[in-house]
Fold this sequence. Notes:
Layout: E1 3-7, E2 10-13, E3 18-25, E4 33-39, E5 46-52, E6 58-60, E7 68-73, E8 78-83, E9 92-105, E10 108-113, E11 122-127
Amino acid sequence: QVHVVESGGGLVQTGDSLNLSCEVYGRSSHSYAVGWFRQPPGKEREFVASISWRGGWTNYVDDVKDRFTISKDDAKNTVYLQMTRLKSEDTAVYYCNALRGLTYLSGSYTPELEYDSWGQGTQVTVSS
């Protein structure tokens, strides 16, 4: 079973940058991608971005498309989320997870998790 460990969160100011890391353990041969998610205070967890293991294909929700960059290091089984021009609305607990698939329909993404379990996440707080 896949196990992930998120790190890199912190307290920053509006306009600052932050780099998150997601270490993936127990990756299976059927694993399609890794996705980053976030859960703002009082809201549900939402998909943010993903990157496929094969080909490095990336997907982003519109709100972060021009500000966040997802990348991976295959040798380290690690996926990164570089966040720039942070806004207060980016404040959330950020999670990563292994994806079995990802569909895009009517302007929204529907990720399919490889396992329905989550790590502890990493807190990102953007102060204005």
